[in-house]
UniProtKB/TrEMBL annotation:
One of its GO terms (cellular component) is nucleus. This is Adenylate kinase isoenzyme 6 homolog. Broad-specificity nucleoside monophosphate (NMP) kinase that catalyzes the reversible transfer of the terminal phosphate group between nucleoside triphosphates and monophosphates. Has also ATPase activity. Involved in the late cytoplasmic maturation steps of the 40S ribosomal particles, specifically 18S rRNA maturation. While NMP activity is not required for ribosome maturation, ATPase activity is. Associates transiently with small ribosomal subunit protein uS11. ATP hydrolysis breaks the interaction with uS11. The keyword Nucleotide-binding applies. Residues 122-132 are annotated as: LID.
Amino acid sequence: MGIARMDTNVQNIHREAPNILITGTPGVGKSSLCQRLSEIVGMQWLEVSRIAKEHNCLEEYDPVYQCPILDEDKLMDGLEETMCTGGNIVDYHSCEFFPERWFDAVFVLTTDNTTLYDRLTNRGYTGKKLDDNVQCEIFNVILEEAKRSYKEDIVFELSNTVPQDLEDNIGKICQWLQHWFQRRSG
Ligand SMILES: Nc1ncnc2c1ncn2[C@@H]1O[C@H](COP(=O)(O)OP(=O)(O)OP(=O)(O)O)[C@@H](O)[C@H]1O
Ligand SMILES: [Mg+2]
């Protein structure tokens, strides 16, 4: 076991509640799920895109992807204390730049490709932005990123295409949370 991993485990023991990451391609339903989940379990929903905007963590605009560039270091410095306390649901469409020690579980939402195409078109996405996001989903880019960046046994794929999936996924995450608290007290 490497030093980094030992450090990770020591940090986790001190958390009062777990931190979980909800990630996946834009449009897979992360925010819909996080909003519902945070209402049900009372954990804090941290929508990274919104927090970055509110705390001036966005740099110049990327003309190709038609979105601002995130100042990752500034964002992470601002979140460190909150994450050390625990009890957070982090919502973001990328996952590799966060410190590994922050998360007890990483849930990657995935969606049927045609459904995602329709959702993004409805949002007004066109051209390269639309194509790149749909390709990202087709090639499981975020799922692979998560498996590369975190221990595989804390990474869970949740299929999220129809409304019933949302309910099922919330149920699965609640079950995982219950186990975490049982392990901690046991
Ligand atoms: N399980 C589901 N069944 C049907 N529609 C869904 C489901 N989950 C989310 N949606 C719909 O998909 C659209 C995108 O959802 P949402 O905004 O939650 O995605 P997101 O992953 O947070 O996107 P972004 O990364 O851009 O913030 C919304 O219109 C939402 O209502
Ligand atoms: Mg969102």
